[in-house]
Specification:
This protein has 3 helices and 2 strands. It is mostly helical. It has a two-stranded antiparallel ribbon with strand order 1-2. A hairpin with a 2-residue loop joins strand 1 and strand 2.
């Protein structure tokens, strides 16, 4: 372990996910309120950024608003996982070699699926059709894996 990380807390926290519709509804309302209050952050490798309330309507805890909050958290976690994968790919690249080649500034590996992302985990405008393959949706198994992760994170916010 690097000297800078010695003495920092580490380990896992086990959080029971809610069961049933009533439990998940309460969990999603808590998530929505937490996003409204600005108290949800995604932490990554030397990064920290807030997850904002996508609805911008304070006090709205309707089912639609709660689902939008869940999708926003899902998007933020997905982008962080992509950034971490890009960091791992960058560490494997030869000096001076960088990006996917589809879009200048993209930190994702060559031949990636989905949108190009810059170093701050922001999606880049879609590349022109001649610059690479069209964007494909994530495989169902990856979407389900991400949904499981986001459900566990949302449950820990409650």
């Amino acid at each position: 372990m690097p000297e800078s990380q010695q003495g920092l807390p580490s380990g896992e926290v086990s959080v029971q996910t809610p069961e049933g519709d009533a439990g998940w509804s309460e969990c999603l309302r808590d998530l929505k309120r937490s996003l409204e209050g600005g108290s949800v952050f995604v932490l990554g490798n030397r990064r920290r950024y807030p997850v904002s309330d996508p609805t911008k309507s304070r006090g709205d805890v309707s089912r639609e608003a709660c689902e939008e909050a869940f999708e926003e958290l899902s998007r933020a976690i997905d982008l962080e996982l992509l950034a971490q994968a890009a960091d791992a790919q960058a560490a494997k690249r030869a000096p001076g070699e960088q990006g996917c080649g589809r879009d200048h500034g993209c930190v994702r590996p060559s031949g990636h699926d989905g949108a190009c992302v810059n170093g701050q985990c922001e999606e880049l405008p879609e590349a022109s059709p001649s610059s690479g393959p069209p964007e494909r949706p994530a495989p169902a198994a990856e979407r389900e894996r991400l949904a499981r992760i986001v459900r566990r994170v949302a449950a820990s916010i409650s």
